[in-house]
């Protein structure tokens, strides 16, 4: 009886039973950095920041024609618009990067008949053979992200900065 139980346990250890799910892991931060996606995001956000700074400078020049009591209000309104634009562009860029990561991960999961891929950041310890980060880095290396056009800042006549 003991021999039967021991052999049953040993036989089941290495075999994937039908219905058992296959799980792999990915180091998201490593993939974003080593694939170049994070660099593309940084470059885009740098260009956005430069454009917003030029917009702020453009707005500052327009204050010379305003009455002194209106300058502070106009400056604050322009800063608010530029700040909102900056936050929106950061969210958009992060969404573009996330969508590219998800698309690549979904395709990899489907192609390799994996049920679920989880971030390594959610586990304390994993078998290195379960980490598919290198495969995803290779898959994403040639991906060129499209963040859209860098916002161009212009001034409304007698008003605050607008996009």
Structure, described:
With 163 residues, the chain is mainly alpha-helical. The chain is 61% helix and 7% strand. The chain is built from five helices and four strands, in the order αβαααβαββ. The strands form two sheets. It has a two-stranded parallel ribbon with strand order 1-2. Strands 3-4 form a two-stranded antiparallel sheet. Helix 3 packs antiparallel against helix 4.
Task: List key phrases describing it.
mainly alpha; two-stranded parallel sheet; 61% helix; 7% strand; elongated
Q: What's the main sheet like?
A: 2 strands, parallel
Strand order, main sheet: write it out.
1-2
User: Order of SSEs, N→C?
Assistant: HEHHHEHEE
Number of strands: 4
| Strand residues, percent | 5-15%
Broad structural category: mainly alpha
Q: Spans of 5+ residues with little confidence (pLDDT < 50)?
A: 1-15
Mean residue pLDDT: 86
Outline:
With 163 residues, this protein is mainly alpha-helical. Helices cover 61% and strands 7% of the residues. The N terminus is likely disordered.
Summarize the topology:
Layout: H1 2-14, E1 23-26, H2 28-35, H3 37-62, H4 68-111, E2 116-119, H5 133-140, E3 154-155, E4 161-162
Parallel strand pairs: 1-2
Antiparallel strand pairs: 3-4
Helix pairs in contact: 2-5, 3-4, 4-5
């Amino acid at each position: 009886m003991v021999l039967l139980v021991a052999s049953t346990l040993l036989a089941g250890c290495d075999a994937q039973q039908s219905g058992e799910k296959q799980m792999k892991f990915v180091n998201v931060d490593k993939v974003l950095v080593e694939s170049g996606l994070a660099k593309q995001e940084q470059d885009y956000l740098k260009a956005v920041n430069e454009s917003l700074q030029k917009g702020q400078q453009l707005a500052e020049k327009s204050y010379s024609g305003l009455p002194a009591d209106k300058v502070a209000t106009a400056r604050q309104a322009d800063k608010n618009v530029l700040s909102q634009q900056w936050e929106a562009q950061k969210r958009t860029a992060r969404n573009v990067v996330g969508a590219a990561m998800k698309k690549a991960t979904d395709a990899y999961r489907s192609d390799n008949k994996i049920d679920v891929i989880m971030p390594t950041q959610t586990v304390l310890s994993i078998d290195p053979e379960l980490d598919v980060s290198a495969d995803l880095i290779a898959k994403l290396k040639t991906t060129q992200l499209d963040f859209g056009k860098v916002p161009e800042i212009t001034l409304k006549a007698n008003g605050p900065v607008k996009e």
